[in-house]
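Morning F.,

Quick status update on the modeling queue. The single chain you submitted on Monday has been processed. Sequence for confirmation:
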Amino acid sequence: MSRIDIKNLQEIPNVGKAIEQKFNIIGVSSPMQLIGKDPYKMYNELCNATNQKHDPCVIDVFISAVKYMEGGPPKKWWEFTEERKNKLGAN
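Structure tokens below.
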């Protein structure tokens, strides 16, 4: 299946109902909208929109979804944890 054929967010690896709801909160309702998005900005938008700090692992899932929709291979979300920690610092 080509990325362009993906119509539902939950067809993206690592995206279930909870992550789909988080995407919806920040205005992402279709998989194609993820292309070119900044996962870190999306996370900040989510925290601002819900007025709460979400688990940083949400960033890892956002990274995995964006990279997948941009043509990257399907990977487990935790394979992006090190990338996030390197970018944001280990805290």
